[in-house]
Amino acid sequence: MNMSRQVVPRYLEVADALRNTLGDYVSGDYLPSELQLAQRFAVNRHTLRRAVDVLISEGRVLRHQGRGTCVLPTPIVYPVHAGSTYSKTLEGMGFRSQAVLLNRSQRPAKPDEAKELALNGQEQVVEITTLRLLNELPISLIVHCFPSRRAQVLDAYQGGSLRSHLEQKAIALTRASTLIGARAPSQQEALQLLMPRHTPVLSIRTLSRDAQGQPFELSNSISRADRFKYHVISGDQHEQ
């Protein structure tokens, strides 16, 4: 029986060819102009643009208005275990990690925060928001919440690794629970992370305890799903 051969749309063929060339570029490089690429693949600019859109949807490139199409880094696999700390882990993988302080405030606790942090009565939370950068490129937004009775040890924090700041105060935290999910970024979040609105973000909610086993920090982070993958490691695996 003869089976008719399914014809692959030309823009998908071009997308596949473009995908195979990305290894020739360094993260942050720009592809040749749409006109140059259209001429190279002998297609019109509409077809070329559709091909580039495929790579954008895969998180491989990002189109900057007026500048061109930028090649994005390959996803980072971040190991999640009880003792993992953001800055130290990523710096150990060879990345330059920065944490920029965006906001600090004290506010009433939400019901779930009050429960997880075991707050007393009407105790408030200290909220600190940081933007994390790897090799100068934004990767994550993190909202850290602490019981207001811990405010004194946080007053001097002006940026950088929060864990390192706490360790200087002789406070060592251990990850007690982690909840991982995904969602669409808000317009503001997409702007802060320099990412397309249609690309999802990975969310991670972490409760950390101090050496006495008391809840100390509840953090909610979002990371670019095109840049980040979480590898959850059990205690036995981490000890090996």
Your description of this structure?
28% of the residues lie in helices and 33% in strands. By secondary structure, the protein is an alpha+beta fold. The strands form three sheets. Strands 4-5-6-9-8-7 form a six-stranded antiparallel beta sheet. A two-stranded antiparallel ribbon has the order 1-2. It is elongated. The relative contact order is 0.14. InterPro entries: Bact_HTH_transcr_reg, Chorismate_lyase_/UTRA_dom_sf, CP_lyase_PhnF, Tscrpt_reg_HTH_GntR, UTRA, WH-like_DNA-bd_sf, WH_DNA-bd_sf. Residues 8-74 form the HTH gntR-type domain. It holds the Pfam family UTRA.
Short description:
InterPro entries: Bact_HTH_transcr_reg (IPR050679), Chorismate_lyase_/UTRA_dom_sf (IPR028978), CP_lyase_PhnF (IPR012702), Tscrpt_reg_HTH_GntR (IPR000524), UTRA (IPR011663), WH-like_DNA-bd_sf (IPR036388), WH_DNA-bd_sf (IPR036390). The chain is α+β, with helices and mostly antiparallel strands.
Total separate domains: 2
> Per CATH, which architecture of the largest domain?
3-Layer(aba) Sandwich
Low-confidence stretches: 236-240
Compressed to H and E, one letter per element, the order equals: HHHEEEHEHEEHHEHEEEH
Radius of gyration: 22 Å
Top CATH class of the largest domain: Alpha Beta
Distance between the ends: 56 Å
The third-level CATH topology of the largest domain is Chorismate lyase
Report the portion of residues in β strands.
Answer: 25-35%
Shape: elongated
Q: Portion of residues in helices?
A: 25-40%
CATH superfamily of the largest domain: Chorismate lyase-like
**Average pLDDT level:** 87
- Our count of helices gives 9
Q: What structural category do the secondary elements indicate?
A: alpha+beta
Largest sheet: 6 strands, antiparallel
What is the count of β-strands?
10
Strand order within the widest beta sheet:
4-5-6-9-8-7
